[in-house]
Amino acid sequence: DPNEDWCSVCHDGGELLCCGSCPRVYHLQCHVPTLGATPSEDWTCLLCLDILKCNIPRESAGSKRKSPVGLSGRELLICERILLHLFCHELSVPFHIPVSRTVPNYYKVITKPMDLTTIKQKLSPSHFNHYEDVPEFLSDVKLIFKNCYTFNHKESQVCQQARTLERDFDVLVQQFLPEHYADLRDAQPDPQPDYESDPERRKKPRTASTSSSPPEQTVVIS
């Protein structure tokens, strides 16, 4: 069997859907977008789809809602493609889900938390806070990195992971959304002292990672 044994997103086993074009496998709920049912045998994951050549309608992805606003069909597909790449990146695990409420002071320091799962939910046309444009999507992804740099020491493992992931994200935007690449500069966070270097923050307890994932899912950088 040429396919992998673990979901490319959550790295867990179980009933998995195999891509017909690459070794990746997914749980239905882990793929972006979420799959409601098992597709045909010749199914191809979004990472293998040539989205730049797809014939996608230009109408708003939210056209079935009461207020027809939001991403176009093409924009939605590209944003989903970028997000799935981030989910599958081996260093992205700490950013998959919201930071646990048990992390001391996190929600006092970070007033606007963000994570990949929340972004996935907001990409759904049925979501009450569905993205209205591409820059809004880009800004939320950048916010994940900003929060990481703000709360954690700049030399921490999780910040190293964030920097690598952010570089990959920038490359993807330049590749698939070149007309919005300049928006990344607008989405760059203002320089801020990290949590540990700020004298006032240093008085408070903190953790080394923003991840609430189980220890076995934490990626160790050598």
TrEMBL record:
<dbReference type="InterPro" id="IPR011011">
    <property type="entry name" value="Znf_FYVE_PHD"/>
</dbReference>
<dbReference type="InterPro" id="IPR013083">
    <property type="entry name" value="Znf_RING/FYVE/PHD"/>
</dbReference>
<keyword id="KW-0103">Bromodomain</keyword>
<keyword id="KW-0539">Nucleus</keyword>
<dbReference type="Pfam" id="PF00628">
    <property type="entry name" value="PHD"/>
</dbReference>
<dbReference type="GO" id="GO:0000785">
    <property type="term" value="C:chromatin"/>
</dbReference>
<keyword id="KW-0863">Zinc-finger</keyword>
<keyword id="KW-0479">Metal-binding</keyword>
<feature type="domain" description="PHD-type">
    <location>
        <begin position="4"/>
        <end position="51"/>
    </location>
</feature>
<feature type="domain" description="Bromo">
    <location>
        <begin position="87"/>
        <end position="159"/>
    </location>
</feature>
<dbReference type="InterPro" id="IPR001487">
    <property type="entry name" value="Bromodomain"/>
</dbReference>
<feature type="region of interest" description="Disordered">
    <location>
        <begin position="183"/>
        <end position="222"/>
    </location>
</feature>
<dbReference type="InterPro" id="IPR019787">
    <property type="entry name" value="Znf_PHD-finger"/>
</dbReference>
<dbReference type="InterPro" id="IPR019786">
    <property type="entry name" value="Zinc_finger_PHD-type_CS"/>
</dbReference>
<dbReference type="Pfam" id="PF00439">
    <property type="entry name" value="Bromodomain"/>
</dbReference>
<keyword id="KW-0175">Coiled coil</keyword>
<keyword id="KW-0862">Zinc</keyword>
<protein>
    <submittedName>
        <fullName>Putative transcription intermediary factor 1-alpha</fullName>
    </submittedName>
</protein>
<dbReference type="InterPro" id="IPR001965">
    <property type="entry name" value="Znf_PHD"/>
</dbReference>
<feature type="compositionally biased region" description="Polar residues">
    <location>
        <begin position="207"/>
        <end position="222"/>
    </location>
</feature>
<dbReference type="InterPro" id="IPR036427">
    <property type="entry name" value="Bromodomain-like_sf"/>
</dbReference>
<dbReference type="GO" id="GO:0005634">
    <property type="term" value="C:nucleus"/>
</dbReference>
<dbReference type="GO" id="GO:0008270">
    <property type="term" value="F:zinc ion binding"/>
</dbReference>
